[in-house]
Amino acid sequence: MQANSEHHEHDIIIIGAGVVGAMVARFLSRYDLDVLWIEKESDVCTGATSANSAIIHGGYAATPGTLKAEMNTKANPMWDQLAAELNFSFSRCGTYVVAIGDEEREALKDEAAHGAANGIPVEIISGDEMRQREPLVNPETTGALACPVGGICDPWDVTVAAAENAVMNGVTLKRQTCFEDFIWHPADPKRIIGIRTNRGNFYGRWVINAAGIYSDSVMHKAGVRPEFKIKARRGEYYILDRSRFTLNSVLFPVPTKVSKGIVVTTTLHGNTIVGPNAEDLEDKEDTAVTAAGLDEVWNGARKLVPTINQRDVIAVFAGLRPGGNAPSANPGVAYHRDFIIEIPHEVNGLVNLGGIESPGLTAAPAIAERVIELLEAAGEALQEKPDWNPVRPARPVFRHLSHEEQAALVKQDPRYGRVICRCENVTEGEIVAEIHAPIPADTYDAIKRRTWLGTGRCQGSFDMPRVVDILARELGLDPLEVTKKGPGSSFLARETKMVGQG
């Protein structure tokens, strides 16, 4: 719906609510700034951040001298404090590059050299040691590169937590607000003074491009880097039932020049994820899985863990990474698929972030810090808020509580005693809390991202009708208006019988 143009001038406007946009918003919320944050979808964390391997990379794989290496290396140690402040789950379970055969074991030396150049603690361990640490690994393993600082997170949880903390500290988030073009100063055609959106015009002194897979389109509207183009890099995945198959850590194959390869990794929820492959596409919305792609993923995974079984698969999905082509920030380094983090000289008022593919999730907090450094270098006098609160309080997760804690919670609020999702043991109390959270979860997928319901063996077939009913009740909607992920995704088409009829 078209809204009236907003003539109020913000200090900063952020485009995009993936993990990078969320971290930028959260870090900027520390300062006395009027920040507007827009997202074209109905919720945060719906693009590249929503479908990936959830790995916090140690930093050994990035080419030394690139922004990817610098941001990865700086960000990795930040995750423990962020997890404590924002109350999201995080585990340094360790990552391994697994070699099969003598040739691959020799290739581990190159990865170790990268790690040493980037200052990352890594070691090459024997095949016997690898099998002791991860009993399900291929028995023919000849060695592995072990990185103890690598880990895993839940990207949904991370992004929602950072976003909520930003909003709690005064950032204004507008969802279903799509960037269309820049507004230019009438007397200075190189000075950006705002943006045009489907919900009207918004004005600000700075615009931060954190549009992920569409970041090239945004920068091109500003006349910046016309040669830069993002191709959607599709990766397909399997999810395995945690009751039948479990790993302890993250297993990579020896990488190629194109990809880190098919990964077999544990998750914070106990499931095992297998994938991704890598296929460059022109279509930035094509998240379909393919028979050929899934076969490629499965065959790659069996090289690392031969005992995986198709009977244990509970879901498949695909995600898109914003792979782009840009020169390295270091003049002495050759052309790379590197990050873009800059204030471009061609225009005034733009902070440009592009090509933030893997390890973008890991690097997000360091990218946010770099944005602040760029703004300060450009003359912004950032003043910290005396009342800034870095803590985003946790809400109860029923399945993680002791029996005594569960009983006390149910006594306080009986809705926590009504289980809605049997597979993941998610209660009505948790769902209602998310609907009324700082960023309200007002669709089924928004509830799913926050509580993990619908992700188990039944994939939501049991809980969906009950969640629709709860959303309708709490939001004052007709059940026909409840959607899966926003406009155009209604669950229900019509009533089939009148209340009271048999």
Provide structural commentary.
- This protein is of the alpha+beta class.
- It has 3 domains: 1-91 and 152-229 and 325-394, FAD/NAD(P)-binding domain; 92-151 and 231-320, 2-Layer Sandwich (D-Amino Acid Oxidase, Chain A, domain 2); 398-481, Orthogonal Bundle (Arc Repressor Mutant, subunit A), CATH 1.10.10.
- It has helices at residues 19-28, 67-75, 79-86, 102-117, 127-133, 155-168, 215-221, 291-304, 360-377, 403-412, 428-435, 444-451, 464-475, and strands at 9-15, 35-38, 55-56, 90-91, 95-100, 123-126, 141-147, 151-153, 172-174, 179-185, 188-197, 200-209, 230-240, 250-253, 263-266, 272-275, 279-281, 313-324, 340-342, 350-354, 419-421, 426-427.
- Helix 1 packs parallel to helix 6.
- It is globular.
- Residues 326-335 have low confidence and may be disordered.
Q: What name does CATH use for the topology of the largest domain?
A: FAD/NAD(P)-binding domain
Name the overall outline. Answer: globular
**Average pLDDT score:** 92
Give the low-confidence spans.
Answer: 326-335
Number of domains: 3
Gap from first CA to last CA = 40 Å
Give the helix/strand class.
Answer: alpha+beta
Provide the helix percentage: 25-40%
Q: What is the assembly state of the chains in this entry?
A: single chain
In the CATH hierarchy, what is the superfamily of the largest domain?
Answer: FAD/NAD(P)-binding domain
Which CATH architecture of the largest domain would you pick? Answer: 3-Layer(bba) Sandwich
Please give the largest β-sheet. Answer: 9 strands, mixed
